[in-house]
Write a structure and sequence with these properties.
By secondary structure, the protein is of the alpha/beta class. Helices cover about 40% and strands about 20% of the residues. The strands form 5 sheets. A 7-stranded mixed β-sheet has the order 5-13-12-11-10-6-9, with helices on both faces.
């Protein structure tokens, strides 16, 4: 049987398109003919154009210019089926080529609307997981754009023989953090699983009860430990864990003391956690590993950007951690990836584990991460070169000025659009610095006749999609996360929406 896919069909009531589960052409026709049987349908095919005639219309040719022909043909066929099913009462669609072409185009765009492509982030969340987390630096994007041929991913240009994957990226990580060795995998969840699987399987890993993290997308640290084959030993309490809690839990079967950075939540008030330096002291000269799962992986001191202190990877290495792991697309601001740094003999052991091959990254990730890491060698230019740090450090006055300029352009669109500049609060996002609101400014807007939900949906349906927040009966665009140069597309989106509303 054909796998279930989702098809869009036109409902009889003439309302919006709906998505129905659909398994085969027969099923589809069955659904449609059930509907048509309800009408006084005598000759359902009368007056409908052919598929080939529709494919020749300007509207469909426009689609064919940028989309695969079979997908366009499928949409045209489905639209004709739906028109047939509506029956003779729906005279407005009968025989009118441009009208049916428009319906087919709308159907196509509805089905394929969610294809992955650039969107404008007006949410104020700098590392928005739903929007692809970090905005890649231009140097990284340029490197990817050059990749229209082969590359030396795993060949030694000197000998012509098989070379080391990710070698330069790993060297950059060592230089930046002071670690002996580094490796790159698919994400931080993979990094944690890999290092526990290769070094701690069947043995105990001691973790504070205050650090049993859950991250969005159903990642939970305890599940990761179980999956690795290691045995989780919880110590301390939710709010307080002391060095002696770890010391008392150590047995002959203990493999590691694992600290997990509470990156997306905070335990405040009467609380105590144990630092890496303290864990190294607890370990003493026992043959145990001290591992730091940093999560967000800062490489620079965030206090310089007006944010609270976040432990850096180099701090963990300097404090004596044997291994440190973190994400490549949180505070590093690169592509989705996970990074492990630490002692060379341990990284060598990890590399030999079968999971390493399964979790490795491809050339796109390696190139983008290498270019992103290079920027951290010149911290004074990070603000200019690195989008994440540019957004984090953009002065409030600058954000306000951009909001004023956008509001002025929107006001010019007419009286059915109401807008004003308002204070906003941006967030770092990406599961980092959870309680840190960054003062910001945004444009709050409403279009008469549209609810805030409606307006937000129409903005998302714009090309390019604009993602706004909803604030009461208004939408809000936080200008901290809107990139320079995206303003014109936002104004154009509102212009289309206002025009459409005024014409109906
Ligand atoms: C973000 C995070 C993860 C998951 O990292 P991904 O790169 O999204 O897989 C795991 N642990 C901690 C502590 C995190 O902050």
């Amino acid at each position: 049987m054909a796998p279930a896919v989702f098809k869009t069909v036109m409902p009889l009531d003439g309302g919006g398109w709906v998505r129905l589960p659909f398994t085969s052409a027969t099923f589809f026709r069955g659904v449609m003919s059930n509907q048509s049987n309800q009408g006084k349908n005598t000759d359902p095919r009368r007056g409908l154009p052919s598929v080939s005639a529709l494919l020749e219309t300007p509207r469909i040719r426009e689609l064919l210019a940028s989309h695969p022909r079979p997908l366009v043909v499928e949409a045209v066929r489905a639209t004709l089926e739906a028109c047939r099913a509506v029956g003779p009462d729906a005279t407005e669609t009968r025989g009118e080529l441009p009208v049916i072409a428009e319906k087919a185009a709308a159907h196509f765009e509805n089905v394929w609307r969610d294809r992955i492509r650039p969107v404008i982030n007006g949410t104020g969340i700098i590392l928005h997981t739903g929007l692809g987390r970090a905005v890649l630096p231009k140097t990284a994007v340029d490197a990817l754009a050059q990749l229209d041929g082969c590359c030396n991913l795993q060949i030694d240009l000197d000998t012509g023989k098989r070379g080391k994957r990710n070698y330069v990226t790993e060297q950059l990580l060592c230089r930046l953090t002071g670690a002996e060795a580094a490796m790159v995998v698919n994400n931080n969840a993979a990094a944690t699983l890999l290092l526990l699987s290769s070094l701690c399987a069947h043995r105990e890993v001691i973790v504070s009860r205050g650090q049993l993290v859950e991250i969005g997308g159903s990642y939970r640290l305890p599940d990761c430990v179980h999956q690795s084959g290691a045995l989780l030993v919880e110590v301390g309490t939710t709010n307080k864990t002391h060095p002696r809690d770890y010391a008392e839990a150590i047995t002959d079967n203990t493999a590691a003391l694992l600290r997990v950075n509470p990156s997306n939540y905070r335990v405040v008030g009467f609380s105590k956690s144990v630092s890496i330096a303290e864990l190294v002291a607890v370990r003493g000269d026992r043959p145990l590993l001290v591992i730091d799962d940093l999560g967000c992986g800062a490489l620079v001191n965030l206090e310089e950007f007006g944010l609270p202190h976040e432990p850096t990877a180099q701090d963990s290495i300097a404090a004596g951690a044997d291994l440190v792991c973190f994400s490549g697309d949180k505070l590093i601001g690169g592509p989705q990836s996970g990074i492990i740094i630490g002692k060379k003999h341990l990284i060598d052991r990890i590399r030999k584990h079968p999971l390493t091959r399964m979790l490795r990254v491809g050339k796109l990730t390696d190139m983008a991460l290498e270019q992103t890491l290079r920027l951290f060698f010149e911290p004074e230019t990070l603000r200019a070169q690195h989008p994440t740090y540019r957004m984090l450090s953009m002065p409030l006055e600058r954000v306000e000025a951009r909001a004023e300029a956008l509001a002025a352009a929107l006001v010019a669109l007419g009286t059915s659009l109401e807008c004003a500049v308002e204070p906003a609060e941006s967030a770092v996002g990406g599961g980092s610095l959870p309680d840190e609101a960054i003062p910001s400014a945004g444009v709050k807007a409403a279009v008469s006749g549209l609810s805030a939900d409606d307006l937000a949906r129409r903005l998302r349906h714009n090309e390019p999609p604009v993602i706004a927040q909803i604030r009461g009966d208004r939408v809000m665009l936080d200008m901290r996360t809107v990139l320079d140069g995206e303003e014109a597309a936002i104004v154009e989106a509102f212009r289309r929406i206002v025009e459409h509303v005024n014409s109906t």
